[in-house]
Amino acid sequence: MNLQMMELLADGIKETLYMTLVSTLIAYVIGIPLGVICFITDKNGICPGRIIHFVTGILINLLRSVPFLILLVAIIPLTRLIVGTTIGSTATIVPLVVAAAPYVARMVESSLKEVDAGVIEAAKSMGSSRLQIIYKVLLPEAKPSLLVGVLISMATILGYSAMAGFVGGGGLGAIAINYGYYRYQTDIMFVTVAFLVLIVQLFQELGIWVVNRIDKRSA
Amino acid sequence: MIRLEHITKEFSSSDKKVIAVNDVSVHITKGEIYGIIGFSGAGKSTLVRCINLLEMPTSGKVYFGNQELTSAGEKELRLARQKMGMIFQQFNLLEQRNVLKNICYPLELAGVSKNDRIKRAKELLRLVDMEEKAKSYPSQLSGGQKQRVAIARALATNPEVLLCDEATSALDPITTRSILALLKRINEMFGVTIIIISHEMRVIEQVCDRVAVMSEGVIEEAGEVKEVFLNPKSETARRLILPDKDEAGSDAGRHSIRIAFDGQSSFEPVFATLVLESGIKLNILGANTENIGGKAFGQMLVEMPEELEKQDTVKRMLRKKGIHFVEGSDER
Asked: Would A100 disulfide with which of A27, A160, B90, B237, CB 3.0-4.6 Å?
């Protein structure tokens, strides 16, 4: 493998990390409030609201049921509108966020469901407002579970980002497709796959280490 | 202090309607320890949640002091709740906060500054005897320790009322006693009105002044603990007080008396002395007694001799010793 190839791979790794991390971040900025709304508007939640619960539920399910590859193509006009182009790693962030945000919302919702209802009741009995329950009780108590969710989301987003390589996205996925698939350079394909595996593994190990450190339930 | 007027709470699901609390009125006076006892599903937990409106009653009014909570706005209700502490069977501590920060939580809500919060929390830890556990997390504590922290947390904002929902039901008998002793101490030191929900008579009898017996959403009888205890009128109260009553009292026609121990010294062999001094053989049909801090509490069902003369001797001796008893109240 020559120097040029190594530079290519280094760029690929950088792009993949860029897409994954930025998309995860934005997906959480959207997904956390969405998940919280979904959770609290449940009929047994702290702020029941049938209509809001129904609408957010539909929105999340709708986006989640569209296969990513189709979503990628379908929202090209939106991508162009936001980024100005539809190729490259920055452009890939748009469909990644659209696909990941509802997924993240469901993850957040399920993490919040793990918080003991008794603890929420105790918080209410002490005179907490709804907002205080959300940011002083629900989110902090669900923190370890939320972080596990981040790890899972990140691995999923990384996988999606590779798929974007087919339609002009950047990163390791694009390298694997362009060199490995279109040019039959199997060795390069294997190297990119190895790097993808390595990145996921690294995130996972690091994440679990952090979760174990911050979770106070397993002392 | 707290007045519940004609409280009814219904839960309705799609196919059926359950009336958990049915037209209950209770008046709890300032500074007393009020017990609500009943079997599981009697509606007592729902009733206590109607006091701080964790459950909104379907109908009826709740007064806290002079304030009607059932018509209060959300903000007023939150402020009222800050004056009412609550502890639970499952403790419900914040798992991701350490002991000190758990106690700080209600103070944060009340807008107390950080330094004052920590100062107050440490004071409370000293009160519940948990100073050395300030930096521990709930998962590192035993049940009794968790409940102590929960009590400290509930008291942080100097509430006027403390609601205890089966607070000792997850604890062993010895820990239960120490928690009850702590509650009693808090009641005496700060004059906090305490409402205790339990299904165990010994919990009520150890600390409560008055008790209400609840069954199927209704208060069957209420009054001074000693009175209800000695002379239970309702079927539920009888079953709670002498659980094995059915076997013990089934022999109709026998003459029996029920003796109540309500704090006599347990070092004094009262019953043995009675038998020895009178020379009359007495048969214990059933007993449910306990030694709490050197004092005897509980009930004993005793079969009396057939001769009226001997019966009078026994009764006279019991009166002389200052022991309460009721004659044949169990025969039905």
From this structure: A27
Give residue B253's pLDDT: 53
User: Is any Cβ of chain A less than 8 angstroms from the Cβ of B53?
Assistant: no
Instruction: Give yes or no for residue B266 having a pLDDT over 80.
Output: no
Q: Which residues contact A111 (CB under 8 A, 6 or more apart)?
A: A35, A142, A145, A146, A148, A149
Q: What one-letter code names the amino acid at B224?
A: E
Scanning every residue of chain B, which has its alpha carbon at the shortest distance from the alpha carbon of A213? B96
| Rounded Cα distance, B177 and B92, in Å | 20
Q: Do A219 and B140 touch (CB under 8 A)?
A: yes
**Mutation for B interface: A44, A120, A126, A129, most B CBs within 10 A:** A126
Tokens 């419900």 identify what position?
A: B92
Among A118, A125, A218, select the one facing B81 at the smallest CB separation.
A125
What confidence score (pLDDT) does residue B243 get?
Answer: 59
Tokens 């006009």, residue located: A77
Query: What are φ and ψ of residue B295, in 5° steps?
Result: -120, 145
pLDDT at B14: 79
- Most distant CA atoms of chain B, gap in Å: 74
Question: Which positions of chain A have pLDDT values less than 50?
Answer: none
Helix (H) or strand (E) holding B291: strand B283-292
Interface contact flag, B79 A125, Cβ < 8 Å? no
Nearest to B134 by CA among B143, A67, B123: B123
